[in-house]
Amino acid sequence: MTEIDLTTNKAEAERHRLEGNEHFRSFRYHNAIKSYTSSLECQETSSVLANRAQAYLNIKQYERALMDSARALELDANNVKAIFRYAKALENLHLYEIAAEKISKIDLNNPKNKEIAKLKQHVQDKTNCVEVKLSCGEKDEFLRSKLPLTEIKNIKTIGRMELAEQIIQDKLHISSPELSSMKIPPPPTTSFIFISVFQRLKNRPVAFAEYFLSIDKNNYGDLLDEVIETEMIKCLFVGFDILANQSNISELLECLIKLADVSRFDIAVLFLDEAAKNMIRKMVERYTVSENQLSILQTLYAL
Q1: 13: pLDDT strictly greater than 90
Q2: Which GO terms describe its cellular component (predicted)?
């Protein structure tokens, strides 16, 4: 991109930002979001992401506000407005402990941070809710990973019986009767079927992982956009960790990478704990994996 193009983009981004601010001041929050989005398409900045996060908060789209403020903090970790809006979104999702931890990094003695101090009083000593209900949210193109997906060639397809035999040999702590008696359902045709099968298999992560591997990667969006949850990704991690070997590691990682195309992926990954992430870190350390895949995986799952 030439210097002239960069200057033009910055000017367009600023024009849309000011337009968004005008909509916001007039309480036209949906129009403000459109203008901020246009600004971000020209130039991604922490301040505009924080502005759009506030607009999302005002229309009670807390998941989107969380994603925008999280991205704003990636670009500028000292953006106090983004920190406040990140914590505010967490509060509305009843994740009080995480919100309190985020606020703890702010100087609450600064008179400019009165609103943050009030928020701290409201969330402190409260515990997180047991289960978070998330609504579907499409990811903007600029929030998607900029890293290109890699084409995996010469993948060895392992049959179910061969795979089960290898599991028994490599993972002795899994009982062969459990594997042999478990009939893997056919690939799902609807989101409802996927959820139903997950509820049956969630305590059998190997079976769930095999079931997930049977799904065409091109169908992830149609099947999972509105239903993917952190619990499902954790279960998949456990199953993949057990199934993994040098022959199939590339295929398993490609599934995890392709999963990032699902619209609620960012939110689901946001709540992955370190134990789950460590499982994937250790899995990729055990085998030879491509640097490209490893780099993409580390970016997508914040490893």
Answers
A1: yes
A2: protein folding chaperone complex
Same domain, 127 and 186: no
Tokens standing for residue 58: 């005002």
Count structural domains, the chain: 2
The reply to whether 89 and 197 lie within a common domain is no
Buried b (16+ CB within 10 A) or exposed e, 162-177: ebbeebeeeeeeeeee
39 close to 58: Cβ distance less than 8 angstroms: no
**What pLDDT score does 148 carry?**
54
pLDDT at 2 over 60: yes
Residues 47 and 164 in one domain: no
Residue 40's closest CA among 143, 138, 136, 139? Answer: 143
Tens of pLDDT along 152-191?
444 444 444 444 444 334 443 443 344 445 688 899 999 8
Same domain, 137 and 159: no
Which CB contacts under 8 angstroms, 24+ apart, belong to 254-259? 254/149, 254/150, 254/152, 254/217, 254/293, 255/212, 255/213, 255/217, 256/280, 256/297, 256/300, 256/301, 257/149, 257/293, 257/296, 257/297, 257/300, 258/149, 258/217, 258/220, 259/220, 259/224, 259/228, 259/233
What is the CATH classification number for the domain harbouring 96?
1.25.40.10
Encode pLDDT of 19-28 as tens digits. Answer: 999 999 999 9
Domain that holds residue 22: 3-141
Q: What's the burial of 142, exposed, middle or buried (CB within 10 Å: 0-12/13-18/19+)?
A: middle
